[in-house]
Design goal:
The complex is a heterotrimer. By secondary structure, chain A is mainly β. Helices cover 3% and strands 35% of the residues of chain A. In chain A, the strands form ten sheets. In chain A, strands 1-20-21-22-23 form a five-stranded antiparallel β-sheet, with no helix packed on it. The longest helix of chain B is centred in the first third of the chain and has 15 residues, at 3-17. Classes of the chains: A mainly beta, B mainly alpha, C alpha+beta.
């Protein structure tokens, strides 16, 4: 019954089953390409193609593969634009264009940016790259050593190069750029190295800096001006980026931008989250530590902040707020609202008003004991005192762990079902804080972390979440931490990969596993779906285990020390027996 | 000499040997330390290896509990823990295993700390005294069980609950096969 | 033996000056002295009674040369005497217990609000001191010194980074342990302006003796002025020699452990040096503050305080001179 009703709906139909739909204007009709990691400015990761369905997915076969020659963590999605596929590797960030019109998709060109080798030493959690962006005949990329480069999509020649990050201070760039309103938006990584976080906008044509906003320090650095109207009182006041820190601590306080940016072209506003404050030992930074671990809305043209919401004031657990932000329109309290959907790292699923930042509804989508809730009156997270880390002491059983209930790997949103499909993790941890010592270009942490599986013993979960009623529809547990993003299709499927290399297709209705394929290495890459030059639907994903969760593989770490890889080693001891390094593109299609 | 008397004399003499492991050497009395500049980390040497003489300082640092404890303190203060954790590694390679990219001799480790290495290991030249470098290098070797059990700590000082070093078995030292990653 | 006799009076030397528990320059210390006096009075009276009875017994024993008399259990005074004696003991002990309880209550100050709090973290072998108010951006970090406004109760949070230490300013209050992984509390309310000395009072390793700190009790206005001055960044060096020293300090090994606000030295495992020269002593009371002593300390920390975590940095005479010029300028 439900199924037939579902299939009867047209893609992009007015309202999904739950009542939520993609934000009008931010998610145009599907042209069969995949031009940015989020698929659309609304960050839906949804393909409107429906050739592959629950009925025929079991016939899905490999169409072609491509080994990119590197073997660190592959978090980037392939991009597809008009018959050409673009892939980017982790460090050394090689870009390859594949010609999809020819059998076997041979390479058209390869671009090697040659980032500095030393940048690998200041990349906190593997030397990943989260993707490219395409706009107006150009491919935009970031390199680990902090450059942003525009390439000619046809020839692969560099048009401009701008150096933004400084590895001597511990800054790297791992995020995918977003091109919005003629600007290339880039932020820095390095919240574990005592950097000062920022987001910068470069002119897409020339590569010249248009604006740069820091996330600590005085208002003029943060680009907070007269148009800044945060919804909650605790975010109002002058120079909070200085006043909510001990003296000078804001200069090394983090608040980086290494995740996802969404864009509402109608409002001309970008939405993105800021990273954790540093150091991890929170006793060294009393105060709310603004503007870390929160969400900013900014005017894309000027960079001026419009509103801000802090998900984790005075963050205690490395709960960056950089996760994806899905733009949707849905009924809240009987009225259609323009909203942001945010499965945040601290374990709460937030629904915000896109115009004001107000938290409309909030509910936990994972197991949380580190906080007792979110006060809707003040907007404030209510931390659990018993789980607060203290220097010289070990606090046990903190859930969720440092990577949160979900880390960087984005969810998918289907406007047909109105459901958010969240790939996430179920980890808890012990923490022992110690004095962190700031030395430029070295880690700034002051925390011993040891992670392990949360309640239930499974380390990964895939959850279908109804954002309108804030409830779980179904979930599928995964033994290993789930570190791959999700893809939803109009055909009624969701795709994701596991760290031991199973690429899976699930039925959107009930989470039943309908198809699976074992890749050479574990999967943490973003799956995409596109229309090939032959008109058929393809699904593509990169394997290549790594990232923070896969550090044990890429760094050949020693599992006898559970605190290795900032504590992730404790939760991934068995990974080397299940997978090894790789870096191969897999493209699937139905026989035709 | 009666047997209990003899036994107690022997016990007393044995106990005396324990006094050296803890000997505190303040820097005034320590060896005049120098870190060998550019100790080659690889095995290939044009024209064959030069005769290698083990550095006498190695014993002085590696067989001294205080030097190892100070090395451990510096390993944490200088943020080595941030990348190498308590030996398991993270941003940097594991130090408790049997693989040494740039050589596992104490002088090679000291050189790695001082010079830095191209894939991300920062240089501490002019930032640590030579004595401190040797202490850290001695501690690094203790992570893979190189020093004798009587000098290492019988309790893990960090908060993580990693097993004490006295329980660690000695890993063979594979010198770097290659300088490439 | 005769010659050693004056040594018996040596401990009395502790009863005067900047470090004495009989000073009573704080509310806590003074009320301790009150308690001490009650205890002294009660135990003193009991002592005199016991000694008097003992002497009486001795005296009677001497008077009767005959055989030891058997005590007469039916003596009319025996029963009331025993009851009286027991009553006296119960009364005396109850009085002491009550006095002690009331004293503890006073010291605990339940519900008291404090204008600011001082976090003292003990390290081998120095004191890390942080002044914290509700405005976190006015946090001040200093080391081995305490400034206190007279007549204002101040909360002190006590922590330790390594082993158990004990915080003791005898003139102001009793001692309190600093235990790793715990926070202990102490309230200081000084009543007299002056300079005092605090000392670690729990053996904590080789340099336990050289783990002291200076306490300055001043008028609230002077205290506010001190706090504001401490908030400022270090002034850039004005003379060439100090500038050369600044170069060495902020780019060399010093910056791996120490912080100087306003420079790129932001490390925090050793004392903050931003206003080093404004303190009264160097290295937790090891040397009085002067440029000569600063230079001597940097030249040979292990000679002054063997085992200290401060390494001997290889510097030539000119460099040492430059470093001491810079450090002495950090007012």
């Amino acid at each position: 019954m439900v199924a037939s009703a579902l299939l009867a709906l047209q893609p992009g139909a007015a309202t999904g089953q739950t009542g939520a739909r993609s934000a009008a204007g931010a998610a145009p009709a599907d042209n069969g390409n995949w031009e940015m990691p989020g698929k659309t400015y609304a960050s839906t990761r949804f393909s409107a193609m429906r050739e592959i369905t629950p009925g025929n997915v079991n016939q899905l076969k490999v169409a072609f593969t491509f080994s990119d020659g590197t073997n660190k963590g592959h978090e980037a999605p392939p991009l597809v634009v008009g018959g050409t596929m673009y892939i980017v590797t982790p460090f050394p960030n090689i870009v390859t264009a594949l010609d999809l019109t020819k059998p076997g998709a041979p390479a058209k060109w390869t671009f090697k940016p040659k980032p500095l080798a030393a940048s690998q030493g200041v990349a906190c959690c593997d030397v990943v790259n989260r993707g490219l962006a395409y706009d107006g005949g150009r491919i935009f990329m970031n390199t680990l050593d902090g450059q942003t480069i525009a390439l000619d999509a046809k020839s692969g020649k560099a048009i401009w190069r701008t150096q933004l990050g400084n590895i001597a201070r511990g800054e790297t760039v791992t995020m995918a750029p977003l091109v919005a309103g003629g600007k290339v938006l880039v932020g820095n990584s390095g919240g574990e190295m005592g950097v000062r976080g920022w987001i910068a906008a470069l002119d897409a044509g020339s590569g010249k800096l248009a604006w740069k906003a820091y996330h600590t320090g005085p208002d003029k650095d943060v680009l907070i001006g007269p148009n800044f109207h945060p919804f909650y009182a605790s975010d109002r006041g002058k120079d909070l980026g200085v006043k909510t820190w001990p003296p000078n601590a804001w200069k090394i306080g983090g608040g980086t931008v290494w995740g996802w940016i969404s864009y509402d072209p109608k409002l001309g506003m970008i939405y993105y989250g800021t990273g954790n404050p540093g150091p991890w030992n929170a006793e060294q930074r009393p105060g709310d530590n603004k503007w870390s671990s929160g969400v900013f809305a900014r005017d894309v043209a000027t960079g001026q902040a419009r509103w801000y919401y802090q998900s984790s004031p005075h963050d205690l657990f490395d709960h960056d707020d950089i996760n994806e932000i899905i733009l949707a329109d849905m009924p809240v309290g009987g009225r259609m609202r323009q909203v942001l959907l945010r499965p945040a790292r601290n374990g709460y699923f937030y629904v915000h008003d896109r115009l004001t930042g107000q938290v409309l509804t909030v509910a936990p989508y994972g197991f949380i004991n580190s906080a007792t809730g979110v006060d809707l009156r003040t907007g404030r997270l209510q931390p659990n005192k018993a789980k607060e880390p203290h220097q010289g002491k070990v606090v046990r059983g903190i859930c969720p762990a440092a990577p949160g209930a979900k880390d960087w790997n984005p969810s998918a949103f289907s406007p047909i079902t109105g459901v958010v499909y969240i790939p996430h993790i179920n980890l808890c941890m012990d923490e022992g804080a110690s004095q962190a010592n700031y030395i430029a270009g070295t880690p700034f942490l002051g925390m011993d972390v040891k992670m392990y599986a949360g309640p239930g013993g499974n380390r990964g979960v895939f959850t279908a979440w109804d954002p309108v009623h804030q409830r779980k529809l179904w979930e599928k547990t995964e033994n290993l931490p789930l570190w791959s993003p999700a893809l939803a299709t109009a055909g009624g499927l969701v795709f994701y990969g596991t760290m031991d290399g199973w690429f899976k297709a699930l039925d959107q209705r009930n989470g039943r596993e309908l198809w699976w394929f074992k890749t050479g290495s574990g999967i943490i890459g973003q799956p995409i779906s596109y229309r090939g030059p032959d008109g058929h639907q393809y699904v593509a994903v990169m394997d290549g285990v790594g990232g923070w969760a896969g550090a044990i593989i890429v760094g050949q770490l020693d599992a006898r020390d559970p605190t290795g890889a900032l504590g992730f080693l404790g939760a991934t001891k068995d990974l080397p027996s299940k997978t090894s390094k790789g870096g191969t593109l897999y493209v699937f299609a139905l026989p035709h | 000499m009666s047997s209990p008397y003899r036994t107690s004399v022997i016990v007393a003499l044995v106990l005396l040997t324990a006094c050296r492991r803890e000997q505190r050497k303040t820097e005034d009395k320590s060896f005049a330390t120098t870190v060998p500049a550019g100790t080659q980390p690889g095995l290939l040497v044009a024209g064959g290896q030069l005769a290698f003489k083990p550095d006498p300082k190695q014993a002085a640092y590696e067989h001294n509990a205080n030097a190892l404890a100070e090395g451990q303190r510096l390993f944490s203060w200088m943020n080595c823990v941030g990348c190498h954790s308590h030996g398991g590694g993270g941003m940097g390679p594991a130090l408790m295993d049997d693989e040494w990219r740039y050589g596992g001799r104490i002088d090679q480790i000291a050189a790695t700390i001082v010079e830095g290495r191209p894939n991300g290991m920062p240089s501490f030249r002019g930032k640590l005294t030579d004595d401190q470098v040797w202490k850290v290098a001695a501690y690094v070797r203790s992570l893979s069980g190189q020093p004798t059990k009587d000098v290492v700590s019988s309790r893990a000082d960090e908060l993580s609950g990693t097993p004490p070093q006295t329980l660690e078995k000695r890993e063979p030292v594979h010198p770097a096969e290659s300088t490439l990653q | 033996m005769r010659r050693a006799a004056p040594l018996l009076f040596l401990p009395l030397g502790a009863c005067s000056g900047v470090q004495t528990s009989l000073g009573g320059q704080g509310v806590e210390g003074a009320s301790f002295i009150g308690l001490f006096e009650i205890f002294l009075a009660v135990t003193g009276v009991m002592y005199v009674i016991v000694i008097a009875i003992l002497l009486g017994g001795l005296f009677r024993r001497r008077a009767n040369e005959g055989p030891t008399p058997v005590p007469d259990a039916r003596h009319p005074l025996l029963r009331p005497a025993l009851i009286g004696w027991t009553g006296l003991i119960v009364l005396g002990l109850s009085g002491l217990a009550l006095a002690s309880f009331l004293e503890d209550r006073t010291l605990a100050r339940p519900g008291q609000k404090y204008p600011f709090s001082i976090q003292v973290t003990a390290n081998q072998w120095w004191w890390d001191v942080q002044y914290q108010s509700s405005d976190v951006s006015h946090t001040v970090r200093t080391a081995n010194e305490l400034h206190l406004p007279v007549g204002v109760p101040v909360h002190v949070a006590l922590k330790s980074n390594d082993v158990i230490h004990s915080f003791w300013v005898p003139n102001l209050a009793g001692k309190q342990d600093l235990i790793p992984g715990r926070t202990n509390d102490l309230v200081l309310e000084p009543t007299q302006i002056g300079q005092y000395r605090g000392q670690c009072a729990e053996f904590c390793g080789r340099e336990h003796a050289k783990m002291a700190f200076d306490v300055t009790v001043e008028s609230p206005a002077a205290f506010q002025a001190w706090w504001s001055a401490q908030l400022a960044s270090a002034k850039p060096p004005s003379v060439a020699e100090a500038a050369a020293g600044a170069q060495i300090v902020t780019s060399g090994p010093c910056a791996m452990c120490h912080a100087i606000a306003g420079t790129n030295a932001s490390a925090s495992v050793a004392p903050d040096l931003t206003h080093l020269a404004s303190r009264r002593s160097i290295a937790a009371g090891t040397l009085p503050m002067s440029r000569a002593n600063l230079e001597s300390w940097v030249a040979d920390p292990q000679g002054h305080k063997p085992g200290s975590k401060m390494p001997k940095i290889p510097l030539d005479a000119a460099q040492l001179h430059a470093v001491s010029a810079y450090l002495a300028s950090l007012q």
